[in-house]
Design goal:
Number of domains: 2
CATH topology of the largest domain: Rossmann fold
Low-confidence stretches: none
Order of helices and strands: EEEHEEHEHHHHEHEE
Number of helices: 7
Radius of gyration: 17 Å
CATH superfamily of the largest domain: P-loop containing nucleotide triphosphate hydrolases
Structural class: alpha/beta
């Protein structure tokens, strides 16, 4: 990545212990505009912990995180204003419909957003479920509701924890397409995965974490 491209997220010397287990030691991370970074490794190796530490949702023992050159303590609000974080769990309320869930998860959407939501859910193959109780949906369909935010919300930084969980090949291809598009437009993406993902049109950096569950 050229030095002229804006450095968005940077972590220096991140060290994280879990009890007596050293998960990572003085790890450095740089994420420029247009970068895609995958954090991979086995269950229990610290992928989610590192992901959350990079955005202030988990503590680390040593190191510092910066957003656009500013220490996290000063840049927290600026980072969160440009962050889309999708956790490992879909975060879907079973008593709400997909449309109601999306409106709750994306409060900035206008009241008349139904047509836009239908369009995205159609791409994901679940537009016919838009008014059903989410309790009636499969794990993969609930995942798709949450992933629709990749198109419906505006954010420079995407932080995705195991985004392909419960998805079939079509859903996985859709996620790859969204990541490729976001990076090509100057956004940045960091995500966790058990197994490496392949992209045809963009370069992807990898952090491999060790350890076992």
């Amino acid at each position: 990545m050229s030095e002229s491209v804006e450095l968005l997220l940077e972590a220096k010397g991140i060290t994280i212990w879990r009890g007596d287990n050293l998960l990572m030691d003085e790890l450095d991370v740089q994420l420029h505009a247009g970068d895609v970074l995958q954090i991979q490794g086995t269950n229990g190796c610290g992928k989610t912990t590192l992901l959350r530490a990079l955005i202030g949702l988990a503590e680390f023992d040593e190191g510092e995180v910066f957003w656009c050159g500013q220490p996290f303590a000063r840049a927290r609000d600026g980072l969160y204003a440009e962050l889309l974080y999708l956790g490992h769990k879909p975060g879907i309320s079973p008593g709400l419909t997909p449309l109601e869930n999306i409106k709750t998860l994306c409060p900035e959407l206008p009241d008349d957003c139904r047509a836009d939501v239908v369009q995205v859910l159609d791409e994901l193959g679940i537009s016919d479920r838009i008014d059903l109780p989410s309790a009636a949906l499969s794990a993969g369909q609930k995942r798709r509701i949450n992933l629709s935010r990749l198109q419906l919300q505006q954010a420079r930084l995407w932080v995705l924890d195991e985004p392909l969980t419960s998805l079939d090949a079509q859903g996985s291809a859709w996620v790859r397409e969204q990541i490729t598009k976001h990076a090509s437009q100057g956004g940045a993406v960091v995500f966790t995965t058990h197994q490496p993902l392949s992209f045809d049109d963009i370069s992807v950096s990898t952090i491999e974490l060790g350890g076992a569950e």
